[in-house]
Amino acid sequence: MSLIKDSSIYLIAELSAKCVPFLLLPYLSRKLGVEGFGELSYYQTFLPLFVIFIGLSQDGAVARYFYVYGKRSLNLVVKTGYAYTLSIGGLGLLFLLVNAI
């Protein structure tokens, strides 16, 4: 693919990813009010931290594995990542259910 085509695809994706929260801002602030919007912002600050602990940069690990070893056993690495994410997610849900009771 050409550099112009790749750059335009990247630009469109980035602009759409940045425009959606910006366009939702008036709607969310009106519907949630000051207190609800503050609570939403509070939870949005913790979300990247949870992604770090749950995901453990598995996308970077897959990219590194592919760069070093090629396609050999790449499917195993991806399946292991899915199994890890599902098990950590299941433990997190179990923790939330136990604390809710």
Q: What does the overall shape look like?
A: flat
Largest sheet: none
Strand content: under 5%
Query: Would you count the extended β strands for me?
Result: 0
Helix content range: over 70%
- Mean pLDDT figure: 88
**Any idea what the radius of gyration is?**
19 Å
| Number of contiguous helices | 3
Low-confidence stretches: none
The assembly state of the depicted protein chains is single chain
Order of helices and strands: HHH
How many domains? The number is: 2
Distance between the termini: 55 Å
Structural class: mainly alpha
Outline the structure in words:
- This protein has 101 residues and is mainly alpha-helical.
- The chain has helices spanning 3-55, 58-69, 74-100.
- The longest helix has 53 residues, at 3-55.
- It is flat.
- The termini are far apart.
- The model has no long low-confidence stretch (mean pLDDT 88).
- One of its GO terms (cellular component) is membrane.
- It holds the Pfam family Polysacc_synt.
- Its main location: membrane.
List keywords for this structure.
flat, 91% helix, mainly alpha, 101 residues, 2 domains, single chain, 3 helices, transmembrane
Summarize this structure briefly.
The chain has 101 residues and is an all-alpha fold. Helices cover 91% and strands 0% of the residues. α2 (58-69) packs antiparallel against α3 (74-100).
Fold blueprint:
Blueprint (H helix, E strand, L loop, with lengths): L2 H53 L2 H12 L4 H27 L1
